[in-house]
Structure prediction request, 210 residues.
Amino acid sequence: MSVAKDDPIAVRISRTLADRIISGVIEAGAKLRQDHIAEEFGASHVPVREAFRRLESQGLVVSQPRKGVRVVGFSVEEVREVAEMRAALEVLALRNAAPHMTKAILDQAEEAIHAGDRAVDVQAWEEANGRFHRLILSPCNMPRLLKTIDDLHAVSARFLFSGWRAEWEAPTDRDHRAILNALRAGNVDVATAVLSRHVQWMGQKPGSRS
Prediction:
């Protein structure tokens, strides 16, 4: 996730902290201290609290009375739940996006696949992976649906980082290519079937590609 300079400070704080949590820089169980974060970003406590609320809505932190805000861990069951939710919602988005798909969008999606193939680490691969999914889903023009998918993708990216942190090996992403080929051929049923299987695979084997 990138941090845009013109974003409100709360959004910039939440995105930066989300990056750190997803990549494992901030580990599960760690306490997020409001004073320290406010000082780091030169902000008041108000945007920091808003950033915490954003992170909580993404399922990355939990706020507990008298205990403050802590980074949440995750179980195998949660991994599967997120995968199933993503599969259902991304299929819905792709079906609505397909009628608005253009050659330019598909060409950009192909470039994202190539970027993933060239990735030298898990961060670069996940950026390309996320870009591919956003490109093919964004034409659905359903902002609330896309926001929910983005939040779920952030959580599943954390699962992926935890699985690949110790040893990185660039995957060959046949599913992305199959989805792209089906979309180029106008076969939406095949594209959505592959997408559903592709996303749910992450829930069957935590740490696998998604």
In short: The CA atoms of residues 113 and 177 lie 7 Å apart. Residues 1-6, 206-210 have pLDDT under 50 and may be disordered. The longest helix spans residues 76-97.
